[in-house]
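Dear Dr. H.,

I hope your travels went smoothly. While you were away I took the liberty of generating a structure for the chain from your last submission, since the lab meeting agenda had it listed for discussion. I wanted you to have the full record in hand beforehand rather than looking at slides cold. The sequence, exactly as received, is reproduced here:
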Amino acid sequence: MGVKAGYKRTELGLIPEDWDLLEFDETCRRLNGKAHQIQTSEYATSGAIPVIDQGQVPIVGYSDSTSRAFRVPDGGVLVFGDHTCIVKFVNFDFIVGADGTQLIATKPGQCTRFRAYDLEHNGISSTGYNRHFKFLRERKFVSPSEAEQRAIADALSDVDALLEGLDRLIAKKRQVRNATKRQLLAGDTRLPGFAEQWTRSSFANVVRHHAGNSTLIKGKLPSSGAAGLYPAYSASGQDVWCEHFEHEGHAVVVSAVGSRCGKAFPACGKWSAIANTHVVWPITSKIDFDFLGFFINDENFWLKNGTGQPFVLFSQTFARPLLLPSLKEQTAIATVLSDMDAELAALEARRDKTRNLKKAMMQELLTGRTRLHTTGGSNG
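The corresponding predicted structure, in token form, is as follows:
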């Protein structure tokens, strides 16, 4: 099969003819960070200098040990996780966290941020909690001209800036939503048009509940739907199917046992709840289904017992007191909170779409399938 005009075949696949394929030592050099390293026990929650280690979190802590600070050269450095294979681009001074954090600078003619994207796109696969820097030194690196590297890095940086902005907006909106939820459900904040006194009740007075069918076992039920099968809920959610249905209508199925006990799943239509679940039905003459959901669709709402295999204490949870507004106000509160959740979901969907766009751009730009116009020449 022929090679596309303007491209050449390499061990990394087709790349543009004017791109080079270089060894690690031709593009990068490892820096000694030992003098700038502190142990995990020395991390603080605040301080003058951020701490960066090989984990997923961008900044894991802070320190006031300014003498330990690693002064980042112009253009930034790469932080490579020897155990984790995680790559970070850092362009500010920092302190090196615990063992396994490798510092890498690029050589003249190379763009450090480009190399970070290259390793994000085509990095080192983890082999478990082992040392991986040796594998990094053995791999080859595509190398466009420095001008094209910078153009590619700038394009991808713009998408990263959009993602970071969305992350900050989502975090802020979630904080506002959570605060609003607490205030509205407690009656500390009232919606316009409502002034009626709330009544004292308990959750036990406004719901009925019972355990799921313990004879229906997850491992013995189909894991995919087909004609004649009805959805069934396990402790993990709706992930199995059943030849018959035991319930019809709206209810909440709660994970009763295990590390995620208290996780709640709204159910509707015709369905069943199997072993290790609990079903909660609202008494609709007393409580709005969506209003109730904002209480119980929260793992922190549930009282629990047990350590190795925790379980929900349903009777004790529902015995707790409840201040209850009128049904009309319940519906209004649920509508406000549902609208906020819908806004959050839309922002999260936009973030997911942007992440997918970045992956597609990386695939195009970092392989040379799509070229960016630059004023610089080739590597020669």
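Two observations you may find useful: The longest strand covers residues 101-106. The chain has three domains: 13-143, 145-196+325-372, 199-324.

With kind regards,
E. W.
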